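Feature request, filed as a ticket because there's no other form

It would be nice if the structure record came with a short human-readable summary line next to the tokens. Right now we just get the raw output. Example of a typical job, pasted below so the devs can see what we mean:
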Amino acid sequence: MHATDPAGFTFEDAERTQLLDWIGLSTAAKVDFFEEMVELAYRSGALSPERLALRDRVSSKQKAQ
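Raw output as currently delivered:
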């Protein structure tokens, strides 16, 4: 910790604590979190079927190789 930090807890301390907490989670909890993030992305339109189809389409450059 840095002595100049009034809270006594630095960003690096918080980052380390979060990482250790994440490591300590069960696999099931990590899968649940991932599924929630995918659902959130889908509902917000970031993962629409149309966007996925465009991403997965083979470009003409890839066909030529």
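Something like this underneath would help us a lot:
The first helix runs from residue 11 to 24.
The two ends are 54 Å apart (CA to CA).
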